[in-house]
Design goal:
The structure holds three protein chains of three kinds.
Chain A (H helix, E strand, L loop, with lengths): L1 H33 L7 H11 L6 E7 L3 H18 L3 E8 L5 H9 L6 E3 L6 H7 L4 E2 H7 L7 E2 L2 E2 L2 E2 L2 E9 H7 L8 H13 L3 E3 L10 H11 L4 H4 L12 H14 L13 H9 L3 E7 L1 H12 L7 E5 L12 E7 L2 E4 L6 H15 L28 E4 L6 H10 L9 H11 L6 H9 L3
Parallel strand pairs in A: 1-2, 1-3, 9-10, 12-14
Antiparallel strand pairs in A: 3-13, 4-6, 5-6, 7-13, 8-10, 8-11, 8-12
Helix pairs in contact in A: 2-14, 3-14, 9-11, 11-16, 12-13, 15-17
Chain B lengths: L1 H43 L17 H8 L1 H32 L5 H9 L6 H12 L4 H8 L13 H29 L3 H9 L4 H30 L2 H7 L8 H11 L3 H25 L11
Chain C lengths: L1 H27 L3 H6 L4 H6 L13 H9 L2 H32 L5 H11 L4 H14 L6 H9 L3 H13 L2 H9 L4 H12 L1 H17 L2 H6 L8 H4 L11 H34 L3
């Protein structure tokens, strides 16, 4: 008899969940249609919010971020406390860590409508999908005046994400190694860089640790193409280019540079195994590797690793990537100020305005703890170690405009994750070279042509 | 006579009732967790669905054509062949071990425990174990050095062939204990007297295996081989965690996930899922031809 | 004659042990690195070879962190609730289907069997993409019930096991009970279920192993910290960039040992489940 009851209960649970499933999804869609899109900027909302204040400490917001719970306790809790001072009606902001959660799980959570009020926008989500899940945070051009990359996540004039910080993309290097084998010169030109790599190789030091197996680490090499092209909008040109990797293109030049490093034997020996990030930092910190090409957010991590390996934090430095020769005040090196990840606001949040406000509040304050520069164009603080970059007369910084949303769709058709994670560089450029062949640009061009 | 008929009819009614009562919940589960998703996938496989409510258009069989005409997708079958070989080797090793262990052996409990151990290990654990095993100067290199085969040492993951072999070995390592356990259990069901009698008749180990053990475990071998063939196509976590499916280690399942989530081409991914199901179905039909299932002994036989 | 026979047996036995020992070596050797790592500090782990023993064997700080930060106790309790519930429900469902498949003839019987086979080949990640919204809409996310329902389904290996078992219990057993006035339900519940107890044990062990190791579903359906389960404990130490590999190594040991011990104790039952199930006729 018990069994019968149990099976009834089970059947009931299942049916109910199915019914609910259908019912709610359809209402959700209806809501989406009716919901008027607010054009007000966050600042305006903030003022309204304080007036609307209900009773004290009743509202609980939730957020999901890709850092660990440890980071939450150390660096996010103070921001939450500060926010609660301004908004006493907020009782708490709960935290769910997304670390270790794959992009596919994050997307499944979004499509299921089950996600936090303030949540990381998965990099793999198409721009055309943003408005299904995230609330518009304001007019893109207004956001761009306020924040670096404030308009980067724009779709049809609205911004859907605020960057958590900005970084420079360039070389992390080990000073001790350069002193020992390369006369202490930090390479300023491409020839110097290649000379250094050759000298380092003779002495058994890895030139570049690419971490190619981790995939996401490769994006800097595609961004290097933008830097090399002298055109901040270069990435978007790919939309109209049938053969982006044709001879003479910047994408080809940056990939060729990588291929040269690979064929010279300057890269780490195992470029395929994934998740070697910690190992690479220790390798850099302990002087087994001279360079890494990455964002400055990694600088403090690399310094920590150097200290752990028994060296000094000062041994790790940062320099612009020397991608050309004849560098001087008239022929400056471009240094890209780069975006990192973006936070969005759940468009179905019960406390939408408050969530939007906290999103901006959080993004304005979390950057330094993440090892990044702050996002505010006026008065944003920089990492103190990087102040020297402003004084180099042969360097000029630039930022990229919003990325054309067509790139991601075309990348899907071609099966090449260009300007996203750039894992293709491993399969089409590095590995063919390491296995004795040539980079397969023809295959890349051919795949991209499917779009036309 | 009439009474008999009535009784039979009553029994039939009761039978129908119990069938319905017993199968309704499992059927609902099957409908919701299998049929519904598969039908959805089938429908979406003819579209360019992008994973959400955004409108999409019907493409017809274009997705299917693309799968069979793209290099990346064809490489899947090459990758699967490595796991297929590993799956067959797995069956051979576990059968061999089960035969060895078949008869009472002192300390066999501990041995069984260790051989089964990898199967109960967490996926993260396994990937970490082998990342350390294959890394430069890791376990494998140390071992090769110790047995004087230093010249064989290389960077295991950068060559497409060695990396696939290394990954397939993990698959073998993890699953051998499972099939071993199943074979062992099945073999132990064969009464010992059969073997004694065979031994008296002068049958050697091989003859005993061929005449007694094999017929008893034929069905389960068929099932395990089928599962390992299909498993070779759908292997996911090993290449996904260790190499992200790079360097030609992409399996059907990793490519499917990449297509869906990295490239937001859910329609195409659905088409891949359907092809995977069809492949599995073909293997199953083939298996049923080779290993004819004996009928179950039901009431109505 | 007797001596040579004995001698041959001894050689056989030595060969057997040699093979088995080498198997154990193949199983354990790759794990040595993880074992070493669990006693190393992060810096030591990253700068030394994985096969180099730790400097300080008394460094239990990684294990301490696993227990404190990993929420092992909560995870263990949640996992216990899930496994118990899922074992009960899945045992019921599997045995009911197996009972019907082996005892009755009905339309679509073979089809049902094929469907269960096919079900095991549907890529689960896409399935979750399709069904997760229903669970979310029903408010079942971060609710243990969601995952119990997910683990309840009939799976092909377990079904096969039960079918074998039911198949070899003679139909005359049921028929005599029915003659005595038992209903079919009572035949299933009071007579057959107790007879297949060994198979239930085996099936539950397989299920527990599966639940214990499945992190994908657990992650998706139970993301909240207080709903953590054993399979997600390790993930608490994997950061977006930097991961605490040594703590993870210690976590692997902490997480795996209970299953290993459980297995050693239950193994007689497990083999019995397989072997009894296989006897034909």
């Amino acid at each position: 008899m018990n069994k019968k009851i149990l099976s009834l209960v089970l059947a009931a649970t299942l049916t109910v969940s199915m019914l609910f499933g259908c019912g709610n999804t359809s209402t959700g869609q209806a809501d989406a249609g009716e919901e008027s899109i607010s054009d007000e900027t966050i600042v305006d909302n903030a003022a309204e919010n304080t007036e609307e204040t209900a009773s004290e400490g009743t509202i609980t917001l939730s957020m999901a971020f890709h850092n660990t719970e440890e980071f939450y306790e150390e660096s996010i809790v103070p921001i939450v406390e500060e926010f609660k001072q301004i908004h006493p009606e907020v009782k708490d902001i709960t935290y769910t860590t997304l670390s270790g959660m794959g992009d596919e799980q994050q997307v499944t959570r979004l499509t299921g409508g089950q996600y936090e009020d303030i949540v990381l926008v998965p990099t793999i989500l198409l721009a055309s999908e943003w408005s299904n899940y995230f609330a518009p945070l304001g007019d893109a051009s207004e956001m761009a005046e306020k924040y670096y990359y404030g308009d980067y996540m724009q779709y049809e004039g609205q911004s859907y994400g605020i960057p958590i910080g900005v970084v420079y993309e360039g070389l992390l290097y080990n000073k001790k190694v350069l002193e020992q084998y390369c006369d202490g010169n930090v390479p300023k030109t491409l020839d110097e860089l290649l000379d250094d790599c050759a000298k380092l190789q003779e002495n058994g030091v890895i030139g570049f640790y690419t971490n190619a197996g981790s995939i996401w680490t490769m994006r800097y090499w595609d961004n290097l193409a933008i830097t090399m092209s002298d055109d901040p909008d270069y990435a978007n040109k790919i939309v109209d280019t049938q053969e982006p990797w044709a001879e003479g293109s910047s994408l080809r030049d940056s990939a060729d540079l990588l291929a040269r490093l690979a064929s010279g034997g300057y890269l780490e020996p195992d470029v395929v195994t994934a998740d070697q990030w910690d190992i690479s930092l220790t390798s850099l910190g302990s002087g087994q590797t001279a360079f890494m090409f990455t964002g400055t957010w990694a600088l403090s991590q690399a310094q920590d690793h150097a200290v752990e390996a028994g060296f000094s934090a000062d041994d790790i430095g940062f320099a612009p990537f020397p991608y050309k020769n004849d560098v001087n005040a008239d022929n400056k090196l471009n240094l890209r100020v780069a975006q990192d990840v973006f936070l969005g606001v759940n468009k179905n949040s019960e406390n939408l305005d408050l969530a939007k406000e906290f999103c901006a509040f959080f993004c304005e304050r979390v950057s330094l703890a993440m090892g990044m520069n702050e996002i505010m164009i006026d008065g944003g603080k920089n990492q103190p170690d990087l102040a020297f970059l402003q004084e180099l007369d042969y360097v000029q910084t630039y930022t990229s405009p919003a990325r054309d949303s067509k790139i991601a769709e075309m990348a899907g058709i071609a099966g090449i994750d260009v300007y996203n994670f750039d894992g293709f560089l491993l399969d089409y450029v590095i590995l063919p070279v390491l296995n004795g062949g040539e980079p397969e640009y023809d295959k890349l061009n051919e795949a991209w042509k499917k779009n036309f | 006579m009439a009474k008999m008929n009535r009784l039979a009819a009553k029994r039939q009614r009761e039978k129908n009732k119990i069938i319905i009562a017993f199968l309704i919940v499992p059927l609902l589960f099957l409908l919701y967790f299998t049929v519904y998703p598969v039908v959805t996938m089938l429908l979406y496989s003819f579209t360019d669905w992008k994973g959400s409510a955004t409108p999409f258009s019907v493409l017809g069989v274009k997705n299917y054509v693309e799968i069979f005409t793209t290099d990346t997708y064809r490489n899947i079958f090459k990758t699967a062949s490595y796991y297929l070989v590993a799956g067959i080797v797995q069956q051979l090793i576990s059968l061999f071990l089960a035969v060895i262990m078949g008869k009472a052996l002192r300390g066999s409990g501990i041995f069984k425990g260790f051989i089964f151990f990898p199967f109960i290990m967490n996926g993260v654990a396994v990937s970490m174990v082998f990342r350390m095993f294959y890394q430069i100067g890791g376990g494998l290199d140390v071992l090769l050095k110790a047995i004087g085969m230093e010249q064989c040492i290389r960077v295991w993951m950068t060559n497409p062939v060695t990396s696939n072999i290394c990954l397939a070995f993990i698959y073998l390592w993890k699953n051998v204990g499972y099939s071993f356990l199943i074979y062992l259990g099945t073999m132990q069901s064969v009464p010992g007297e059969y073997y004694d009698a065979a031994a008296i008749d002068g049958a050697g180990m091989w003859m005993q295996f061929k005449e007694i053990t094999f017929p008893a475990i034929k069905m389960i071998i068929g099932m395990m081989v089928t599962l390992s063939i299909v498993g070779s196509i759908s292997v996911f976590d090993i290449p996904y965690v260790l190499t992200n499916g790079k360097n030609s280690t992409n399996s059907f399942a990793t490519t499917l996930v990449e297509t869906a989530f990295t490239y937001s081409r859910y329609g195409l991914a659905c088409a891949m899922a359907i092809i995977m199901l069809l492949l599995a179905a073909i293997v199953m039909v083939f298996k049923n031809m080779v290993f004819k299932e004996e009928n179950d002994n039901g009431y109505n036989r | 004659m007797a001596i040579t026979d004995n001698g041959r047996k001894r050689i056989y036995a030595i060969c057997k042990y040699a093979i088995l020992c080498s198997m154990v070596f193949i199983v354990l050797y790759p794990m040595l690195g993880v074992f070493y790592a669990s006693f190393k500090t992060q810096a030591e782990y990253l700068s030394t070879s994985s096969m180099q023993p730790p400097e300080d064997w008394a460094n239990f700080s990684n294990f301490y962190l696993v227990f404190v930060r990993g929420n092992v106790v909560t995870g263990f309790l949640n996992t216990a609730v899930i496994t118990v519930a899922a074992c009960v429900t899945s045992t019921l469902l599997n045995t009911m289907v197996a009972f019907c498949l082996t005892r009755f003839d009905f339309k679509g019987k073979n089809l049902l069997d094929r469907f269960y086979m096919a079900a095991s080949f549907v890529p689960s990640i896409i399935v979750h993409l399709i069904i997760f919204k229903d669970f979310a809409a029903a408010g079942l996310v971060n609710n243990l019930i969601s995952i119990i329902i997910l683990y309840t389904g009939v799976d092909i290996v377990t079904l096969y096991l039960y079918k074998q078992y039911f198949g070899q219990i003679s139909v005359s057993v049921d028929e005599s009970a029915i003659m005595d006035g038992c209903s079919y339900f009572r035949v299933y519940w009071n007579i057959l279920l107790p007879m297949v107890r060994p198979a239930i044990t085996t099936a539950c062990i397989i299920k527990i192993t599966y639940i214990y190791n499945d992190f994908y579903t657990a992650f998706l359906y139970l993301p909240a910290k207080e709903k953590g389960v054993m399979s997600t404990v390790l993930y608490r130490f994997i950061g977006p960039y930097s991961s605490q590999w040594c703590v993870i190594a210690a976590g692997i040991i902490v997480v795996t040992i209970p299953v290993f011990i459980g297995f050693i104790f239950a193994q007689k039952q497990i083999y019995k489940g397989f072997s009894d199930g296989a006897v034909k006729g």
